[in-house]
Amino acid sequence: MNKHAGISLVGITCREASRLASEALDRELSRRERWALRVHTFLCRSCRRFAKQAAILHEAAALMPAQLRQELFAETTRLSATRREKIKRLLADAATSE
Amino acid sequence: MSIKSASASEQIGNPAEWVDRYGDLLLRFACSRVSDAELAEDLVQETFLAAFRHRQKFAGDSSFSTWLVAILRRKIADHYRAAGKSPEYLDSSLIDQQEQFNPKGKWLTALAGWRATPAQLAENAEFWLVFQGCFGGLPVHLAQAFQLREVAHASAEDVSRQIGITPKNLAVRLHRARLLLRQCLDTKWFSH
């Protein structure tokens, strides 16, 4: 842990506790991490709530009906139609001017 | 003009088809390395134009898509250099627009409780519309990480491999994404 980030509750700050709470949703924490998070959240209500709420979002996303998932989140990383056309036009221009 | 293997010109194909073929791939790569969607599209556009100008240099010793990604990589590096920043800037700490912690690492505002179960939220279409609004406001590299991990359900390991960042950077991005989404939903949904 960063020794210079002011130690608040038992070794770790809220920033660090929230990071551990987030990471706990993605991997198994080490025993030391688990302990630090448990002690911190025992004493800190905001971090307890953060951990709970991040988990709620994590589980809700997993339970989202398939249709909604498709409608709302299917194509987040796609080139927009306007940009697609623009690049095609630019490439065509470049080809004719060669 | 250089002598090229038949496979190289075959791979280059018709430039008119590049965008549909490689556009999304390049955009996904760009989005994992910059925070702004518009900028990501600009970089992809520049990549295609540069690839067109230099297409004679593609020798076919790597795949054409790898060659395009290499050009994009350089465009991204140029962008950061011009802005006087390093690419690590994206994942370095304390760059959040809305910092939620004070310099000592404590919450600036205490968190309020939520009264909802995951199952209730999951079934509520209205909630997801609000969620989508919050999600759309995230920097693209954070939205991408969250999307792949939480919506598409890939393991953290797969996500970091897929977008080519370290597990540690991914953890930083997911933490930020969750902080921002939680805050946004708290205002737009839970306190209503």
Could you characterize what this model shows?
The complex is a heterodimer of chains A (98) and B (192). Chain A contains five helices and no strands. By secondary structure, chain A is mainly alpha-helical. In chain A, helix 1 packs parallel to helix 3 (45-63) and helix 2 (31-43) packs across helix 3 (45-63). The longest helix of chain A is centred in the middle third of the chain and has 19 residues, at 45-63. Residues 1-9 of chain A have low confidence and may be disordered. Chain B has nine helices and no strands. The termini of chain B are far apart. The model of chain B has no long low-confidence stretch (mean pLDDT 89). Chain B is elongated and about 65 Å long. By secondary structure, chain B is an all-alpha fold. In chain B, helix 2 packs across helix 4, helix 7 (140-151) packs across helix 9 (167-190) and helix 8 crosses helix 9. In chain B, 34% of the residues are buried. The chains are: A mainly alpha (98), B mainly alpha (192). Chains A and B meet through helix 1, helix 3, helix 4 and helix 5 of A and helix 2, helix 3, helix 5, helix 6 and helix 7 of B.
Key traits:
heterodimer; A: 98 residues; mainly alpha; 5 helices; B: 192 residues; elongated
Helix fraction of chain B, binned, reads: 55-70%
User: How many beta-strand runs of chain B?
Assistant: 0
Sheet with the most strands, sense and barrel status of chain A:
none
Question: Based on the structure, what is the oligomeric state of the protein chains?
Answer: heterodimer
Q: How does the major sheet of chain B shape up?
A: none
